[in-house]
Each structure stands twice: as C-alpha cells, then as structure tokens.
Specification:
It is a single chain. With about 400 residues, the protein is α+β, with helices and mostly antiparallel strands. It folds into two domains: about 270 residues, Aminopeptidase; about 110 residues, Immunoglobulin-like. The chain is about 25% helix and about 25% strand. The protein is built from nine helices and 19 strands. It has an eight-stranded mixed β-sheet, with helices on both faces. It has a six-stranded antiparallel β-sheet with strand order 1-2-5-11-7-8, with no helix packed on it. A five-stranded mixed β-sheet has the order 3-4-6-10-9, with no helix packed on it. Helix 1 crosses helix 8, helix 3 packs across helix 9 and helix 7 packs across helix 9. It is globular.
Length: about 400
C-alpha cells in the first residue's frame, strides 16, 4: 500500500509539473527505492579482425559480431574466446562470428566464455539472414564456461551465433518496409553515444490532437532478439488491413522505438550500451543519451499533441516466457493487464501465461511508464529458445487482445 501511494504521488506531481511553463519538455527524474548508478563507465571494444590458421579462417568483421579471440588448440580443435564489453554484466554471453575453410573439413570448435557459462543454443546460417538451430547432436557442453561445437566447414562462409543476428541496418530496413503502409511515419528520436540513429515509428492519424498514446520499446539489451521478433509479430497485427486494426489506428497514436541500443547491438555487446550501462536501469536520471532522448521525446511529443500515454510495452528476452508487471494499479486503464493476459490465455490453446508482478523498486521502463504518466507498464519477455512460430502467435495475439480491449474505451 505504501509503494502504491508513492506511485500515485509521483504521478500527481509529474502532472503538476506539466502544468508549469517549460517544465514538461523533459522527462521527470525519480528517486527509486533501489537506485542504480548509470553514469558511463569504461568498456573494452573488441578488435575487428580475421584470424587464419592454415585453411581455417574466422572473422568478427560485421555488425553484431562478438569474437574476442580465436586460436588453434590442436589439428582438429579451435577455440573462440567470448568476453563481455565490461563487468559486472548480466550473464547473456552473446557470440557471433563467421568461419570457413578453404578446403572441406570437419572441426571441433570450443566456445570459451571468460565471464559466464553457456546459455544460448547455437544458430547457424549460410548467408547471415536465414538461420536454423545447430543440430543438438553437434553441441556438447564441457565444464561450465565452455561448449564444443562440431562443424563441417567449406569455402562458403558459415555464420555461427547465439541468436539470429539482427543489426541496426536490419531494423532500419524493417522500419522502411512498414512506412510504405498508410499512417506510418519514420523518424529519428536522437543519436546514440557513438552517433547511430535511434529510430521510431509514429502510427496513427497525423497531426490529430488529443488521442491516447501507446509506447512500444525493444532492444534495450542487444542479445534479446526473440523479444524483437515478438514486437515484429505484434506490429504485423497492429498494421493489418482488418476492421479492428484500422479502427484502432484511427483512435490511438502508437510510438514504437524498436532499437533503443543501436551501439550495443552493432558492437555485439552482452547487455550494455557504448557507455557501459544497462539502459533498462537508466529510467530515473537518464544519464545515457539513448534513454534521455527517448524519454524526452515521448514527453515532449505527448504534450505538443495533447496525448495521454496509457500503456507502455517493453519487449525483452530471458530464459523463459514471462510477463513482468507492476504490482501497483495504474491510473489510466485499471484492470487492463488482467483482462489482457486472460484474453491471451483464452486465445492460444493449451497456453497459460506466466506472470510475475513487481513493486516499483528499480528504475526500469515499466515503472517509468507508471510514474511518468500513470500508465500501465509491462515487460514482455520471450524465452531464448521459444519456438519462432510460437513467438509470432504470441506477438500477434497480444496485439489483437490489446486492440479488442481498448477499441471501445472512451
């Protein structure tokens, strides 16, 4: 009850500030019960290079790669060393590299993690676009921090990665495909620490004031590709040429930030941005340019167009499918999360959503939505190994259930 009272007080205070001249152009700062220091810290940038041992070559020279070292152990075994950008860091040991042999041969490849144990089931590709899981019979876990892959190499490049590689260029190209549809606009909210674009999509009737607004976020954490896949499926349903979706886009404004951390994504980071910080702990004082610019843009554009933010969904990945919700009650759409999750469960046969509510403790996006706007904030987590077709079903169903719940809201 005390935490809920604090949330309500923050919400009322934020709206008081918005009534004062010049005070609503920036997102408000908050003192969370469990603060996190998100000032920039040192990162070690991996050296981009190609390693050659006889006929075998390995390379990290592409966006999204992570290969810190490559060495030969014996005639048939090679070692790929994987290290994080800095530490401490979440145990999300991303790896991605290209490998080939001038003559066909089989090798054993040990992946050695310097700061974590093995987590991600290997994916392979021949073109960096179409991916499949490496046959489990070719994967053998060694002691804790090592895993051994059996690979058949040839002159054609084999891509090996923790998950499907989706770079900032891939996200931008996806956005450009979406803006071919009516009432979808592309923009740049700002620049990352290293000058990369932070893109957004603005969906709905242009220049219409007073609409309620929904915010979608993704890729705060670089390896969390399955969360981005869920966002893509969510967008497919949201932009469908159906009576429900067409009516919803007329009624609401939707802002989508699909690539919150472009530097971390392209640098192959385990977790952090180029400032060495977890962006999803920076929603209190916005020390990092990515969170500062996105938060300010949402606040500013909502004020200019007289939009009220009612819902924020942040798409992530973890070891299993789960919805992280706020234990506190939002002021804009009370009861939404319960009806929404119930609708998802009833629409997907033999599926029961896993829900874990949390009180407002750390400066993460779902808490920020509640404190800044009195909006519902939900972290939409997809498992690392969740079936890719099921991800599409979950993403589309989540969007449809959201639209059905909100379309008749006054």
């Amino acid at each position: 009850m005390k935490i809920q009272s604090i949330a309500v007080a923050f919400f009322l205070l934020a709206h008081l500030f918005q009534c004062l001249p010049g005070m609503a152009q920036q997102a408000q700062s908050y003192d969370f019960p469990q603060p996190v220091d998100t000032r920039s810290r040192f990162i070690k940038v991996q050296e981009k290079k190609t390693w050659t041992f006889g006929t075998v070559q390995a390379s990290n020279q592409f966006d999204g790669a992570r290969l810190n070292d490559f060495s030969k152990k014996n005639d048939s075994t090679f070692v790929a060393t994987i290290s994080p950008e800095n530490k401490p860091v979440n145990a999300s040991p991303w790896y991605a590299f290209k490998i080939l042999s001038a003559v066909p041969r089989d090798i054993n490849l040990e992946i050695y993690y310097t700061e974590a144990e093995h987590r991600y089931s290997p994916k392979v590709s021949r073109d960096g676009k179409q991916w499949e899981a490496l046959d489990p019979s070719r994967v053998r876990t060694l002691k804790g921090e090592r895993v051994q892959l059996s690979l058949s190499l040839g002159p054609d490049t084999l891509w090996v990665a923790a998950q499907e590689v989706v770079s900032s260029t891939d996200v931008r190209n996806w956005c450009w495909q979406l803006i071919l549809q009516p009432n979808v606009r592309y923009g740049i909210a700002g620049k990352s620490s290293l000058g990369r674009d932070i893109p957004f999509l603005d969906i709905g009737r242009d220049s219409v004031e007073g609409q309620d607004m929904i915010i979608l976020l993704s890729r705060q954490h670089p390896p969390e590709v399955t969360g981005f896949m869920a966002l893509q499926a969510f967008m497919d349903a949201l932009l469908a040429d159906s009576p429900l979706a067409n009516a919803f886009r007329q009624k609401y404004r939707i802002l989508v930030f699909p690539l919150m951390n472009p530097d971390g994504v392209d640098l192959g980071h385990w977790r952090h941005n180029a400032g060495g910080v977890d962006l999803n702990r920076d929603w209190a004082y916005y020390y990092q340019p990515e969170t500062r610019q996105v938060a300010d843009y949402v606040v500013q554009t909502a004020r200019e167009r007289k939009n009220q933010v009612i819902l924020g969904l942040d798409f992530h990945s973890t070891k299993y499918d789960v919805y992280y919700t706020c234990a506190e009650t939002n002021q804009q759409i009370p009861g939404f999360k319960d009806y929404w999750l119930q609708g998802i469960a009833e629409s997907i046969p033999d599926y029961r959503p896993r829900v874990e509510p949390f009180e407002i403790e750390q400066p993460i996006s779902k808490s920020w939505f509640l404190l800044q706007f009195g909006a519902e904030g939900i972290t939409f987590e997809i498992g690392d190994d969740t079936d890719r077709e099921f991800i599409k079903i979950k993403g589309r169903t989540a969007a449809i259930e959201m639209m059905q719940l909100l379309i008749f809201r006054k």
